[in-house]
Amino acid sequence: MSAAATTPVPARPKKRRGRRNLTLTIGLVVTIAFIAMAAVSFFYLPHNPNVPRIPDRLLPAGSPRYLLGTDALGRDIFSQLMVGARTSLMVGAGGALIALVIGTIAGLSAAAFGRIADETISRSADIMLSIPGMVTALVLAATIGSGTLTTILALSAFFTPSFTRVIRSAALSVLQEDFITAARLYARPTWFILLRHVLPNVAGVMIVQFTLYFAAGILTEAGLSYLGVGVTRPSISWGMMLNEAQQQVGISSPLAMWPGLSIVIVVLGLNLLGDGLRDVLDPKLARRTS
Amino acid sequence: MSVPNAIEVVDLVVGVDELSAVRGVSFAVPARGRMGLVGESGSGKSMTAMALMGLLPPGWQARGRVLHDGVDLLTLSDKALSSRRGRTISMVFQDPMSSLNPVRRVGDQIADVIHRHMGVTRRAAHAQAIDLMTQMNLPRPEQLARAFPHQISGGQKQRIMIAMALACYPQLIIADEPTTALDVTVQKQVLRLLNAATRERNSALLMITHDLPVIAAMCDTVAVMYAGRIVEHGPVQKVFRTPRHHYTRGLLDSQPTMDNIALDGSSRLHSIPGMVPPLHALPSGCAFHPRCPAATDRCRTSMPEIDATGAACWHPVPVAAPAEAAS
Amino acid sequence: MPVYIARKLAFFLLAVFAASVLIFLLIRGAGGNVAAVILGKDATAEAINALSRQYGLDRPLPVQYFDWIGNLFRGDLGRSFRTNEPVTDLVVSRLSISIPLCLSGLVLGLLIAIPAGTYSALNSDKPVGALIALLSQVGIAVPVFWAGILLSLLFGVRLGWLPTGGWTNWDSNFWGAVRSLVLPVISLGLILGASLTRYVRSAVLDVMNQDYVRTARATGMTRMQALLRVGLRNAALPIATVVGLQIAELIGGTVIIETVFSLPGLSRMILANVAAREVIVVQSTVMLIIVFVMLVNLIVDLLYGVLDPRVRLTR
Questions:
Q1: B19-30/B5-16 β-pairing
Q2: Which stretches are transmembrane (chain B) (predicted)?
Q3: Of A112, A120, B242, B311, which has the fewest Cβ atoms less than 10 A away?
Q4: What is the CATH number for A137?
């Protein structure tokens, strides 16, 4: 034990807590704005984002009727961004959610059902981790064709092993606690212990990981759609918009700015939210990784 | 000045931001002397040691003077301090399990210190390291030197740590609870080794512990710390036989001996009521007054200094009522 | 150590086998009839049957699998359906772009992350440390292709220093080839470096708080010596693990960045084949990538054994 550990060291608590709250607040605001933008797109869009209007093509931002201007086919940029938010939300959250569900089941099983289950699940997760997500997506696109659903499937396949590992190690540390031993002494069945005691205690980890993989999912989806193997029209993706901007008018166009900025802001917001939540919900993990 | 001091500490204050863990501590360890520093966790004894070594955690500051080898250590740069650490002043830490570099062979870790400070070749340093390991009563030193820390026992690790601390014949060794993390059976051997080896090398010893019998057995003088201050200071025999500060007395009374332990509930083993105050809520006046049986208004308002009694107390324990000896 | 190596090798072989079965089944299972997929919606039943027979797709699945694997071992990746070119020939020239791109990106990422992460860890309570942490956080949120687009806007279009795309062969114009790779490598390295910085930072923070670093200082190392000789050496262990995990991510980035800069690398070939529904070519090249990733992971694992005596000597 160092002297610092035996003496309570008040390492500037005020300043750090302030930074933490700021992180959480910024993350929360950005995330809510993003979800709101996606939600509104279902009820209201300034223009139909898929209908070309050649006379209005390539208008600059701030034009009357077109807040952020139009693309090479005269489609409204802002409306496309709104529908793109919807896609990011669906694909990112969908992929992360499926991975969360499968990963939690697998991770809890690995932690609770003995060595053989653990070895099998952990090794499988290791193997899947070394298959690049991009590769999975490409294979799926080649066989069942690209599209929103394919992208969600690819993402969940990509994220599941990481979730499994995180949940497993969190569950293992919960299972070592004394109250679990007590529950076992009362001859509670394993599934009961998992549901009643372990799950609530790894819920914090689950929420944090979900947020972080939500962000990663948005990035990956944008990449796939940029390559043309992700989302296809009439769905719209920010990555797809960047691809079209680059192909139709060259990269110097301001068209390449808006979708890129949107991705950065939303992903940054979600990551900040995840980090902020981690400090609140999972202090043990926060100390290790921040 | 017939005997120069191995270290002399004057008005040492150690703190971070507004908080102070050490609040004006002064003492001296003469060359080849052996002093004990006692106190509960949080009394500031470890912080004192880290300040002497110049190894305070980030953000912590030390004020006052720490005179050693003709200089004030607190005024030295990190580089100048580094050339003394391990050479003229060295330290043995509490937890040998985590104090050795896990990816370097233990023999090399000792040899590194010798090579760094003694200006000898790597080969010579390594031979000296093996020599040193033999003196530390480590079995088969050539073989053990090639081991990594995780391959040897806790007692062996602490012997390696002591070897590293003694390697350059330092004027002063600070030992911070060197046996707390070890098995009881090993503790005594390690202490005996530390005692003998420091004497052989004419090194002074500053022993930091909450284990009073260890101090009684090894040290000439003892300083008792409470809430960042030395509350009693004097020769071991005097302090332990006739404690003048109520805190010292409480500490001695709470030592289990064969006489005062009884499992039938009639135990005469005392404990000091209350708890060590946290740094940010130190009581006014004498910091011990909320727990002190003899506290008066004066104790609540003004802080006593150490006087002729050897204790910093307005109402010292009468000499006529000796406490039970600790050893 | 021999036991450790043997274990890691065995796992590598198992992983390659499992992944190959997975890819094979995915292609055969998810896509339905491969010949029908290749020929597209309008193909007649006779044409599909003919193609199945020509490619041996009518044989039982295990036979097809071992045939495929056997050919892979002999370096035969199959033939393109449309051009009838051997895939192996196509792949080799493209690897001469993809592999340098990918590995340089990794090296650049480490060259950025190790100093930046270490510096920000050592100055974690100063503004500089917070700034580096913030930059790394932002960098993680930037899609690698957008970084590529912005960089080619600045250095290609505005300043005109470097090509914004295209490729000349190593043989015909070596420096031209290098110039073509500069921006792609920087894009990859920056983005990878941003996320690695975070891990390096936390590894160094963690290690520098360890008791053995304090011991190193107490025996006469300066702060810098303790960092370089003891701290980084120990921080290398968690960093190696993270680098291994990031390889899969890096491959994804390489695929995208080749598209951004129109580099005719392996991934562009796969993309073209995905679009053309050349299922067998995709299957083989994808397997090649997976083996590459697993190989890098194996190397990282073995490196770990060298770096950490606890792993080497006890397991």
A1: antiparallel
A2: none
A3: A120
A4: 1.10.3720.10
